Amino acid sequence: MSHALVLGGGGFIGGHLVRRLTGEGYQVTAVDTHLPEFSVSPAWRFLIGDLRDQKFCSGVFDRPYERVYQLAADMGGAGYIFTGTHDAAIMANSAQINLNVLRDAVKIPPGILFYASSACIYPPPHQYTDAIYEESTAYPAQPDSEYGWEKLFSERLYMAHARNAGLNVRIARLHNVYGPESAWTGGKEKAIAALCRKVITAAEGTEIEVWGDGQQTRSFLYIDECLDGLERLLLSDSMEPINIGSAEMVTIQQLAEMIIDISGRRLGIRNIDGPKGVDIRTSHNERIRRELKWSPSYPLRAGLEKTYTWIRQQIDVKQSGGDE
User: Which residues are marked as active site?
Assistant: First the structure.
């Protein structure tokens, strides 16, 4: 039986990944500081601990793994990474995790070592006319947040270990992954989950708040397609960082209007000051079409309907006094 290690296996993407790998016959070790919040992990073993701790991290690498997925990071939505309040923790925590992981991966090299980077490594859009970010536009470097700087540094850290220590590395720059079982409250939720929550909990005939003027543009990748892309990447020979994201662009205002329409509720939108990130960013997908023979095609509306339904169920359960 093939062994896979999912670091960050208690998180949103990690939890879905553990489920898929288990279904494909992998014996999965999942690692996180907490169990998944919304479902029971099917992992063969789930290790609870802090990967910043060198001793704990070394204990995780106790056998050769065919695949290691490094998803563990200090992260969140715009309300967490763009306020500046958490910059030191975001950079120090994630960098320490990656330094520990690479130290131990060199000792027992996995078949493939995957690192989850982010679209936040790209510079502000004023440098480019369309802000559809092809991979090479990461340089000259100018991420718009310390989270982005840490991700860019860690990309280079993994590539350096590939060159100097012979690790078989894959790196994906993920673009706004969403879907059921993502955080929808608590301060670390991202745009889609936050807007779904606002629409569900707003009183009929009132307004929901949207940060900024709503004209900031993004693309969003449904979780199932994210996992499809990761599988194709790991089966490829592509060792340079590559975009995995949807090319279907939408403004945040349009996104909010779409969620309101899905809800069937009578609500307005009020734009307020708040952290909103860059004005425009979406995924350039020529390389994944060429190298992975694939690109995302799942419609945003279809993914929103599934995500909205799941968050509504969570809120209904919470309001009824049941277990989430």
Answer: 147
Answer for the pair 1, 58: CB distance below 8 angstroms, yes or no. no
Beta strand 3-7 with 132-133 is: unpaired
Q: What is the pLDDT along the chain (324 residues), one digit of tens a residue?
A: 899 999 999 999 999 999 999 999 999 999 999 999 999 999 999 999 999 999 999 999 999 999 999 999 998 777 777 778 889 999 999 999 999 999 999 999 999 999 999 999 998 865 444 557 899 999 999 998 999 999 999 999 999 999 999 999 999 999 999 999 999 998 888 899 999 999 999 999 999 999 888 888 899 999 999 999 999 999 999 999 999 999 999 999 999 999 999 999 999 999 998 776 677 788 999 999 999 999 999 999 999 999 999 999 999 988 877 654
Tokens of 252: 């945040």
Tokens of 273: 């000051």
> Domains of the chain (ranges plus CATH)?
3-177+220-244 (3.40.50.720), 179-219+248-283+299-320 (3.90.25.10)
The residue type found at 6 is: V
Residue 314 CA to residue 268 CA, distance in Å, equals 23
Beta pairing, strands 282-283 & 242-244: unpaired
**What is the rounded CA–CA span in Å between residue 37 and residue 233?**
28
